[in-house]
Amino acid sequence: MASQIRTCFVTAPAGSELKVLIDALHRRGLKVVEPRLPSSEGDLEHETAEALRAADLVIGVLTRERRSEWILFELGQAWALGKRILLFAPPTSIYLPTTLRRFMTVRTSVSNVEAVNFALDQLLASPEPVKVSEGKTRQKRHLAEGSRNYLRYSLEAVGTADPRELEMLVAETLRQSGVDVLSESRPGDERADLAVWSDELQPFVGNPILVEIKSNLQTREAASRAGKQLASYVAAAGGLWGLLLYTKGPDELKSLPPNVLALPIERLFERLKEETFDDVVRDLRNRRVHGVGL
């Protein structure tokens, strides 16, 4: 499905180096809209609001060197207008105000060419997420009958699917289970198989969480290589965590990088009968952080 994003508004501290980001937007055919310079009697706030209304996507940039309350104001306006928002924040620890944690956030510098390109490609390839009304608590999800049937089919098909079929099977199963936004890599891409964006997972594992799918991990050495490969994808994309899914492998995968979670595909599908993907990942992450298995 072609992206509906055609225009973009970028809000960043004065003096920020945005060439990599702006060039990446232009290469993808996105027009960067800016506020018109106000006349002597003009109103910059009004012109900014008009530019935000004209944008399909709003990108916020946070840096360590410069702080700007104006950025928070503009992002708040964009949220009120129902705009799709992508936030770039420094890769190392920085406090994000509570009001910003609702946005899809990529932890990377906007001078990181590969990470910026990856984030934009994933966002443009993804369907627009379904918005949940503010103030409403998310209730426990109940799968529709069609999704339950697909989940049963998926469990039966795991053992016979070839590697490409397995990737497609996992991707469609996650969609059926209700993930917010999911995009798949193209054959030949040196990237993880899937990227999943989730508002609920943002405070725990950031966005996106990258998913690598392996049909068979015969040895712990093979599992270790797969984990290191996924960790390199996560680092290149400016992410925080990755999830390694596999059909067969050692009972325990102990030699994985600290930011790589792992789970057999069949076990994931079984858990999706009663839990959301967000619940499963949050549980795996908490167990990993507290030293309880993977």
Task: Itemize the secondary structure elements and their pairings.
Elements (H helix, E strand, L loop, with lengths): L6 E5 L7 H9 L3 E2 L11 H11 L2 E5 L7 H12 L3 E6 L14 E4 L5 H13 L19 H13 L5 H15 L3 E4 L9 E4 L4 H4 L3 E8 L3 H17 L5 E7 L11 E5 H7 L5 H13 L5
Task: Note the main attributes of this structure.
294 residues; alpha/beta; Rossmann fold; 2 domains; five-stranded mixed beta sheet
H/E element order: EHEHEHEEHHHEEHEHEEHH
Distance between the termini: 35 Å
Silhouette: elongated
What count of helical segments does DSSP give? 10
> DSSP strand (E) fraction?
15-25%
Q: What structural class is derived from the secondary structure elements? A: alpha/beta
Average predicted confidence as pLDDT: 81
Number of strands: 10
Number of domains: 2
**Overall helicity:** 25-40%
Report the major sheet: 5 strands, parallel
Characterization of the model:
The chain has 294 residues and is α/β, with parallel strands linked by helices. It has 2 domains: 7-125, 3-Layer(aba) Sandwich (Rossmann fold), CATH 3.40.50.450; 145-289. The protein is 39% helix and 17% strand. The chain has 10 helices and 10 strands. The protein has helices spanning 19-27, 44-54, 69-80, 113-125, 145-157, 163-177, 202-205, 220-236, 265-271, 277-289, and strands at 7-11, 31-32, 57-61, 84-89, 104-107, 181-184, 194-197, 209-216, 242-248, 260-264. The strands form 2 sheets. It has a 5-stranded parallel beta sheet with strand order 2-1-3-4-5, with helices on both faces. The chain has a 5-stranded mixed beta sheet with strand order 6-7-8-9-10, sandwiched between helices. Helix 1 (19-27) runs parallel beside helix 4 (113-125) and helix 5 runs antiparallel to helix 6. It starts with 6 loop residues before the first strand and ends in a 5-residue tail after the last helix. The model is unreliable at 132-140 (pLDDT under 50).
